[in-house]
């Protein structure tokens, strides 16, 4: 066993600084036969649980610590240039008291001391010093830096201050990384230690595992600082010795100070921290008067809820509820359910929409009775044991969806009820995924964007994809093998892949503890000044703390807004939780696949399946949500399901007992609950055992499955099932278990999908207005849903200063754009305008508008964008006229404000209607802008074309030459070749590292917009047509990154250059009329005509046409729809 222990180690949780993965670090320590190892990340304790478990697994003692930042003065001081100069200090937890004090200190460094970095001061160190061992730190330690800068005398004073705080637990830390200044520091520190009688300890400032990893850590620093490795001015370590050295290597450095080496083992012997993973720390629920225990109160609430749900409580309902309550009591979770019930009740009582359920909690009758969920588990055969298994002790996990806009109110309620020292949000770590790691490393190495992007795009964007797995593909492997620069890029990226890159807040996680949170874990300061845990959600649960997910779901906001609009517009109160689940309009919409904007059902793939499946009952939707996943989609399961539903494939059961379990899914094992039900009904498994079987099958553990197979067959035999049939059934279950989905979750989300489909089918105007409001900040989605409105025959009107509210609204049978959607106007200006209109009625004129609206918000930018968007069209002027007098309008508004302040306006800020206005605004008589210019202004102000589209006249031509709309490509497979036509709305040209020009362009069609990457070869072939407003056809490959889709262009051509018209005339009688039409609409698209023949011949060259929709319509009216064909030529498919 080694006589040295590393007590100063930075893991990957010293974010973008430590390059030592915890598992690698611990394994290396074991290889070096070290009895213990410390973790001392910079300012945080993010990784201590992973570290603790890794050490225990390898038989090494974990020493829990942190290298804290010590403020030069008080943590209350925040003067730039003084208080941002911090010192390092290593703290190690000696015992449980020290562990708790360390968590308290690190928490306070974030919550009270944060200034550039999390800081503690000597007052805090004194207050929480018990049970802590302090090492004086590296060269950035206060004692070491004073020894170098100010000499031994000042350093001794500082060392004395730390000795006063920590007593015999303060050690002078010595390091030797071959740095010249360190030699001077160590000589002085040794003299100080001898003189003051302070113990010494030798450490290495470990930042990576092996010496060869120094370059990896250097690149990591470049990623942190945004610098390139070839930048001479960048931050860089002066040593390549910061690795986990052996005892011999450390002995060679400190052979003259054996005490410093021996003290590493002595310190580790004194550090004995045990982390408790067995206890549960549920908070107590404050019971109303008259109740002594949580379970009695829970039971009473449940029976009250059943009465509301069912009216008469049948015996089977009572039996199920009593069973669930018994399990909940037995597992000690009664207070948990009360806590969840309480904040959901708060939400409902305050008009905050709550989702019907999420995850396995929908399988609980207790949850349904309490109103936590809104899915009847008995009606849909949802199983409690899938949620809470009495045979596998685990914390219950109830996730709840709330209205996105008001979720924060529920979180505030929880904070206020249980105390801000006992509630926190939960941290999550963004990691360097495969593509991101390649991009980060490429930037650090100074490679061009184009080169790095090309390599990153060769990594498939699949869940769980790694660079090593991607290297199994032939194209990437060939580049890796032949290009040394790419090899270095990928090797470095592999070394960093999966490491945490930054800390952020989990989208929904909230933890509530019994005692102060710092009794169990350290806290972190969020970017908005809030508080979160330093441990991820899985670790929080492992520590026995109550974790729940309170999610914000935009769809609930849409539902709530739509229901409110329906009430205001139509006087109809829609109770969304009690709509009929057999509405014909809804199923008609679903069968037609008209589900753009419908929750979970709007992708092109889902719409295709809807058209094929033709759902008739709610159970079909539950199945659809479960089916539309990669596993079933890739296995042929979806096609089989559809054929069975329509009777094209016979539904057969291996045993009659399977029919009642599988009939709702036409004999297909689709849900995890069906696997459980088969094990229970056929083989006599308890539902708890059946859940364990389901888990084993899902995780494909053969050694466990083999034993369960024997148990299943034996149990089935006892129930009269033939052993051979039983074996077939078990194998079938095992096969489908890999695809099985949680039916409880599927049912809950199918219900939200149905609710949105119901609103769209029955109240399309209100629903689409609410949907548009929900995406008002996403121009592409607004554009997509405006197109959907047009498809459905709903006109979307531009904003209007006298009709628009803040958001999208329904006006008669149309939808009106909201003022908040106008760019560069701002919510303050919008609210001011609406308030003035609400007080004094519609604005009767432009002068009236200037007189009544606060001049402070009517600046030039606001006025211009109101005009450009069309919001001021209601005053009867041309936009060209109004834009010509923008400065006059601003001056008039300020003049009105001056007169208002002089008392010529009423106290309510409304112009005195009995007096004539003294203000005047002459408007010049000038021509209006061309239509294309007006549309461009709208696009500039609203982000999309609303009163028309420059491509509208070319709709038929675009359809003819394209294989996909832009709105569809994000739903298509990565790498698919498509042809897309549209207008270039933006272009950015760059030069590659090799000096070759290339471009990124925004391409927009009638449905959406996307980015097109034009690499140098394609750019050189097409640069003459690549400019704003050009209409082009792109043949390219889809590149998916998350939900975003781009096109990598293989060819870009002008729309005119790839189009031609073929006309088929049955006789020559109409030829003169055809020529007349072609003459009126001359352009650049060639026309070929065939008379009574299938082979078109060319008409003379001067009959080239501008193929607008008017031409197509007139030609079709003349010679028939079949006689007009638009062809695509000269572009690959």
Features:
alpha/beta; Arc Repressor Mutant, subunit A; single chain; 1133 residues; five-stranded mixed β-barrel; 45% helix; seven-stranded mixed β-sheet; 7 domains; TIM Barrel; 14% strand; 47 helices
Topology:
Layout: H1 22-31, E1 36-39, H2 48-58, E2 61-70, E3 87-93, H3 96-111, E4 119-120, H4 122-127, E5 132-135, H5 142-149, H6 152-166, E6 170-174, H7 180-196, E7 200-202, H8 214-225, H9 247-254, H10 258-270, H11 294-310, H12 315-331, H13 334-349, H14 365-370, E8 399-403, H15 407-418, E9 423-431, H16 434-445, H17 449-457, H18 467-470, H19 474-482, H20 484-496, E10 500-512, E11 523-525, E12 531-533, H21 537-542, E13 546-553, H22 554-570, H23 584-592, H24 604-613, H25 618-627, H26 630-635, H27 637-645, H28 659-662, H29 672-683, H30 687-699, H31 702-718, H32 723-737, H33 743-762, H34 764-774, H35 779-791, E14 796-797, E15 809-811, E16 814-816, H36 827-840, H37 846-852, H38 860-869, H39 879-884, H40 886-904, H41 931-942, H42 955-961, H43 966-969, E17 977-991, E18 997-1004, E19 1009-1014, H44 1016-1022, E20 1031-1041, E21 1044-1054, H45 1055-1058, E22 1059-1065, H46 1071-1080, E23 1082-1091, E24 1097-1098, E25 1104-1105, H47 1109-1119, E26 1124-1128
Parallel strand pairs: 1-2, 2-4, 5-6, 6-7, 8-13, 14-16, 19-21, 22-23
Antiparallel strand pairs: 2-3, 3-5, 9-10, 10-13, 11-12, 15-16, 17-18, 17-20, 18-19, 20-21, 22-26, 23-24, 23-25
